[in-house]
Amino acid sequence: MRYDLPYARPGQVIGLLGGSFDPAHEGHVHITKMALKRFNLDRVWWLVSPGNPLKPKGPAAMEKRLSHARAVMDHPRVEITALETHTKTRYTAATLDAVKALYPGVSFVWLMGADNLAQFHLWQDWQGIMATTPVGVIARPGTRGAARNSVAAQTFEYAKLPARASRLLGRRDAPCWCFINVPMSDTSSSEIRAKGDWGEV
Q1: Which CATH architecture has domain 16-77+84-195?
Q2: Residue 7: HSE in the Cβ half-sphere, 13 Å Cα cutoff
């Protein structure tokens, strides 16, 4: 048994939702529950990152973010993890390589909100991520058009799985991605921080 690492059996399909979760909120909970259902996932792991390389300012302390995330997301098939502190990776492509090496025989689906797909082409080795890992994209308020017209969506248009077949995503070989429309929550971490409801500590 690997202490502090989530458990997964070969043959399972695990969704990975990465982010700073600074702080975690109802929007994260909502897209996680939608992803579990629509992509037919066995489990979802939240990867609470040490820091987002695309953001100039560091997040709140890891323990604070983990504790809050666990309070917000209480679900038997969702695990809150600090996996990237174990893999010592900061970029998604490297994290995915490390996770796949730790869990042979497990299938992983990278989950993201549509707002991330719109700027996905700015991520390190984004084409490598798309080429090696199925990607599930969940609609977010005000971002559908930008996501559908994004560089990533256009480049990998040929690999798009219709939303009506979303339950097959984790059982398809990459490249394969799927965009699903769901009832939306407009809560955002940046708005919570701006209101002063989440301290710096």
Answers
A1: 3-Layer(aba) Sandwich (3.40)
A2: 4
